[in-house]
Amino acid sequence: MNQKNLDYQTLISYAAGELTEAQAAEVEQILAETPAAATLVDRFRRISRAAQEDNSVTIPPSLVADLKAVFDPEQIRTSSRPRFAEFLASLQRTVADLIYDSSGNLALAGTRGPGMARQLAFASDGLEVDIQLAPDGEGDDQHWHLLGQVSPPAEDQPALVMLVPQGQDNPAGEAQPDEHGLFSFTAEPGEYEIHLIYGKRLIVMPGVKIP
Questions:
Q1: Strand locations in the chain, DSSP E?
Q2: Which among 91, 41, 86 has a CA at the least distance from the CA of 66?
Q3: Binning pLDDT at 50, 70 and 90, where does residue 153 land?
Q4: Sheet holding 118-124, edge to edge
Q5: Is the peptide bond before 114 cis (omega within 30 degrees of 0)?
Q6: Could you tell me the residue range of the domain that residue 162 belongs to?
Q7: Do 172 and 187 contact (CB within 8 A), yes or no?
Q8: Structural domain tally of the chain?
Q9: What is the pLDDT of residues 163-193, one digit of tens each?
Q10: What pTM does this model have?
Q11: 3-state secondary structure labels for all residues of 102-126
Q12: The domain that contains 181 carries what CATH number?
């Protein structure tokens, strides 16, 4: 084994103690010469311990930092990340209710068009997520700006928002809400789900169509 063959799956398996003694020895030799890879292994181990042992009602800020550091947007788009999928599966999953869609009002008024702005609101167990969709650009270069707000803001419960194309597992983008609960994405036309990690909950907002 050499450094080029040391991929994320191998690092995860090493951190979880799933390699043979010989394989682990080879990885350890490479880690001794590759500080960045050793740092990733440390982060994987912290994430694994937190997922298995943490019984608090919130995700520790250090775990959120590790998740963002390990699963950056490029890796989210290109890696299957089975360990991250296991982490998501451990959360309490809830499908939010759509409580407002401005496109319905526009359709009744006969003014709805493919390039018009749209507002949505979802609710789930005391949380509300407001979303504004607005076009940016024209013609073939047109994309959409999505601005959202989580109410109440996460504050002591670190949150992570992911924009997931319908029928896919890998997010097209991810954002961490600020202190006011605000987050934003730029997206191509299509149908998406918005996934909100809030404490130990995963709140899914389906059927977000752009435009």
A1: 92-95, 97-101, 118-124, 127-136, 143-151, 159-165, 173-175, 182-187, 190-198, 201-210
A2: 41
A3: confident
A4: 97-101, 118-124, 127-136, 143-151, 182-187
A5: no
A6: 92-210
A7: yes
A8: 2
A9: 999 988 788 888 888 888 888 989 888 999 9
A10: 0.59
A11: HHHHHHHHCCCCCCCCEEEEEEECC
A12: 2.60.40
